[in-house]
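Appendix B. Raw example, untouched.
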Amino acid sequence: MREIQPEQERLTTDDVEGAMGTSTLRLLRGLLDVAQQSGVAVARKASLTHTELSALEQLTRADHGPGELARHLGVTSAAASGIVDRLVARGHVERRPHEADRRRTQVALTDSGRAEVLGHLMPMFTALDELDRSLTPDERAVVDRYLAGAIDAITRVL
């Protein structure tokens, strides 16, 4: 049996497997698994690589420089440049001069890129919005606390 050494106590794999036995943790694990699969499926439907789709999703939040985009995607600057080139060729993003420093370049999502991402993800967003609206304020507080704690726990491995 392999030992796992967290920050403050020693747990065995049996301890971890037992802790993952609650319905809440099984459902969370299922959510994480389905979320990962959905990215691959959406990328395939859009004829994009998973990394290209991730770039488009990142750019829905804000414009980024190529280096910053590379860091978010976990790829080299050269790889990010190739991703941007392919997305520019498809009309999904464009390179623009940085607003504050004209020597720098920003990568911005185009209407085509936004439509590509949202067109595939809108059914999911609609269903999640409907589910969210069905929560009472007390239920939402519990879900918010749980999800914030789950994000914190998952972030510890990053």
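End of appendix B.
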